[in-house]
Amino acid sequence: MMPSVQVEVRFRPSGRTVRVARGTTLLEAARVAGLPAARACGGDLLCGKCACTLESPGAAEAAGAAERRTLARNRVDPGKRLACAVRLEGDLEASAPGW
């Protein structure tokens, strides 16, 4: 069995850094880092509470239709991403209040 590829995630403003398996959501990475991660919907792309800013957006897939609808419905800045929707493809830096 091949070992999973690890990616590094740095959270701002805390500077906390964790390594997680590629494909992990940013929300799960925040939990691994011991950081607060608002998610009234349980991470089901409904509430928009886990909105964050990706400082290195090329390390994640572009927002899908469901994520864009949730951002619009919850009046979240369309430049933000939902941590529950961001699947990590490479090293990433992200910021959110409380991180």
Fold topology:
Elements: E1 6-12, E2 17-21, H1 26-32, E3 51-54, H2 65-73, E4 81-82, E5 92-95
Parallel strand pairs: 1-5
Antiparallel strand pairs: 1-2, 3-4, 3-5
The gist of it:
This protein has 99 residues and is an alpha+beta fold. The chain has helices at 26-32, 65-73; strands at residues 6-12, 17-21, 51-54, 81-82, 92-95.
Please describe the structure with a list of short key phrases separated by commas or semicolons.
Ubiquitin-like (UB roll); about 100 residues; about 15% helix; alpha+beta; 2 helices; 5 strands
**Helical content, roughly?**
10-25%
Number of domains: 1
- CATH uppermost class: Alpha Beta
Secondary-structure-derived class: alpha+beta
**What proportion of the residues form beta strands (DSSP E)?**
15-25%
Summed up, the helix count is 2
The tally of beta strands, per DSSP, is: 5
Termini distance?
A: 34 Å
Widest sheet, order of strands: 2-1-5-3-4
Q: What is the typical, i.e. mean, pLDDT? A: 90
From the spread of the alpha carbons, the general shape counts as globular
CATH topology: Ubiquitin-like (UB roll)
| Computed Rg | 13 Å
What is the CATH H-level superfamily? Beta-grasp domain
Low-confidence stretches: none
What are the secondary-structure elements, in order, as H or E? EEHEHEE
Largest sheet: 5 strands, mixed
What is the name of the CATH architecture?
Answer: Roll
